[in-house]
DNA sequence: AATCAATTATAAATATTATTGATGGCCGTC
DNA sequence: GACGGCCATCAATAATATTTATAATTGATT
């Protein structure tokens, strides 16, 4: 018997339903059926009496259930014992762009902690490229990035997209509007990060403005979010930022949506495809599951 | 953690030697190394301190060892509980040609029982073709056959070969010789099984005689071994039989080796390639191991 | 030091096993 | 007796494990 089969058996025994057990284990139902079948074949007996309408434990299955649970518990105790002796505990290193770390993560972290309290999380704020580099290095276990990794040992999945919004000084002529259009920004001096620092955002802003016939007029490059906002507040110019930045409310700036189908930037989660740490995959599921 | 990995870990921990542990588990050493590596990666710690000269447990490994053993024991207890409740016990159905069942098996069975006392063995005497058929049917778990199966879900391995010897009435002119040659058998009346009953032996005898320029002179067909021997004893003719038959000593017949490179017949063991019953594979190993 | 024998690690190829998505067919209910 | 839910089966694919051959390392020995 393999540990995996024991877990599958227990799930089915508790749900008395192959489909729900499969869902609980995040696997497809035929895979689960096959494993139960293998287990029964190895034991040389039936564990479940099943029709398409009813699943019930056989007497052998009933005898097996508590023992199988004990085996699982003992296996987990073994893992815990080794970790305790090594003074190790699960540590998940998470990093990525500010949209994710500042905007999304607090909610996700709360959800994850509820299910998995023994795991320590460390969060780093990183740009996409270094985040992917650190993932490959194993300096990071989970990365939130704007660009999907091309390395084939890194897996990734789309998480969310968010619109880009304009930031203006409160005393700007357009500050009272509900929204602004690219055409209205013509000639406005811009305060944005350098291309080398935020290639995706930089390109997205350029493409958007040029696509609407406006030549970007970059007054000032600034890489730090707060520096950009401060500069806008000081009247050096306006900026275009991902929507989450508008969490930072200040009296002296306003955030306005872009009226004419402004651009969006995406966030993807990336991790090492076959990371042996189970918590990595659990965290990924936690992020991807619908709300 | 998988139980397979736990078993591998325990073997290495007890042997403190990857190569010997691999041998004990009947697997290749790199496979074992890889599994230990995976386990360590999943735990996020080293279980063994190892150089090419010395293997020792880390402190984590020491803590892990008794717990891992307990997990394995608990898993086995679970299996036992299910089997006990189902009133099932391992039953190995073994069948095959008489050379194997009468000649080889007694020794093998003794060896197997020593290691695996809880398994009941049932032994059937069958010809090769029905044995293979029953294997496919699951009416049989292990088959000893003269012809290797072609079905690709049946695995097989060579077990032994034995020479064919001549059986003559004690009062035959050649009965005093140390050995007989094909040429001396020219014209002798033969008592042998029909081709349909023992195709391999039949063909081997024909090929041997014709290969030495002797045309077989079949006096009588008889399928049962004892019938053949009795007929030879009664002076109806001579016969050619696999050597093991000479176990049946009688005053009125003599067994003589064939002088001129007489033919041999082989025995192979066959089983279902991926039989889920562990004891099947253990039995096979028991048969194939040297000695 | 340099060599040697023993032993684990690595690599590439292969074999095995698990998983998935699509679908069939059974069972109980309406 | 048709219907809907649900497990089994199938074929294709993906993932994983295993093997053989070989490299690289270690510690003892010359």
UniProtKB/TrEMBL annotation, chains A, B:
It holds the Pfam family LysR_substrate. One of its GO terms (cellular component) is protein-DNA complex. This is LysR family transcriptional regulator. GO terms for molecular function: DNA binding; DNA-binding transcription factor activity. Belongs to the LysR transcriptional regulatory family. Residues 1-58 form the HTH lysR-type domain. It comes from Oceaniradius stylonematis. Keywords: DNA-binding, Transcription, Transcription regulation.
């Amino acid at each position: 018997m393999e540990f995996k089969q024991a877990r599958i058996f227990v799930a089915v025994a508790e749900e008395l339903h192959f489909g729900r057990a499969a869902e609980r284990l995040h696997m497809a139902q035929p895979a689960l059926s096959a494993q139960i079948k293998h287990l029964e074949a190895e034991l040389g007996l039936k564990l479940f009496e099943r029709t398409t309408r009813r699943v019930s434990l056989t007497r052998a299955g009933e005898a097996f259930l508590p023992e199988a649970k004990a085996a699982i518990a003992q296996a987990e105790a073994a893992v815990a014992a080794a970790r305790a002796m090594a003074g190790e505990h699960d540590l998940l290193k998470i990093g990525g762009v500010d949209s994710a770390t500042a905007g999304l993560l607090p909610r996700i972290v709360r959800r994850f902690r509820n299910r998995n309290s023994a795991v320590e999380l460390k969060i780093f704020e990183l740009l996409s490229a270094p985040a992917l580099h650190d993932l490959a290095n194993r300096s990071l276990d989970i990365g939130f990035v704007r660009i999907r990794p091309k390395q084939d040992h890194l897996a990734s999945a789309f998480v969310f997209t968010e619109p880009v919004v304009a930031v203006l000084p409160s005393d700007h002529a357009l500050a009272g509007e509900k929204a602004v259009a690219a055409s209205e920004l013509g000639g406005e001096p811009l305060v944005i990060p350098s291309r080398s620092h935020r290639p995706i955002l930089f390109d997205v802003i350029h493409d958007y403005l040029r696509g609407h016939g406006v030549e970007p007029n970059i007054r000032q490059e600034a890489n730090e979010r707060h520096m950009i906002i401060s500069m806008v507040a000081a009247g050096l110019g306006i900026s275009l930022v991902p929507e989450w930045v508008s969490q930072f409310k200040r009296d002296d700036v306003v955030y306005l949506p872009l009226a004419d189908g402004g651009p969006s930037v995406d966030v993807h989660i990336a991790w090492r495809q076959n990371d042996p740490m189970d918590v990595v995959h659990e965290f990924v599921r936690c992020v991807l599951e619908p709300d």
